[in-house]
Amino acid sequence: MSTVKLKIIFDDNVVRTYGILVSKDPFKVNLRLPSGLPLNEAISAQLNFFEAGQNKVYEVKPIRYSGNTMEFVVIKELPAKSDRSHYRIDYRGYFKIKKIEGDPTEYYQNVKRINESIKNSLSYRIKSVISKEIPQMQYVLWYLFELDNKIDEILEILKEQKCIYSDFMVIKSVDISGGGFSFFSNEKIFEVGDIIFVDGIIDDGSIKIKFASISKIVSRHETKKGIICGTVFEEIDNDIRENIVKYVFDKDREMLKEAKNL
Question: Going by C-beta distance under 8 Å and a sequence separation of 6 or more, which residues neighbour residue 36?
């Protein structure tokens, strides 16, 4: 049976999960959704899978979810997704952003400066060598890694107390990929084509990826609660981008493995 990727869009969020196609008439998929997910509040849903070597995308409506099986009604077929869209994963976090107006040169310089500072940090260097060390040394390095992260958190708090980010706004990230990210904002001030400065961190337990970027808004979906915008990275350090790509790939693989074990 084909592996299926389901994408459900809500007013302020997007949820993705993998499943296994059971039948196409009626359209049924075995999958596992987060508990308490308000399916009746979904704006739209999409199914993505390969059939006869072709990528198929359908807009669908969930009509029944029993056990781990969901039944859908197909509304229409959609254009095939790009790689950028297909390899995005959900990420719930908060980034600091600022809309760039006027000459962006200073912001591009700040991105390079911040990313170089991140790469020169102790935690970044420790993380890059942990896998190459013997187990005993890995334990010591993980301890130093966590200690450095705690110091960074304290410094971040001090930055905020000094109002360094007083002219930034905080947005809720929806998903992330090596090509960009999506976010929700209850303030409808962003438009397609806007350029933004991003100070972000992907914090997923043992994984922390800090980054700065210049990003461009390429999609905008207005909802009852605000807007969901999709962005692409216009400027970001290549090494940091590769770390994001690896994170996305690992998480995507975990989701796929869970679906196959249903």
Answer: none
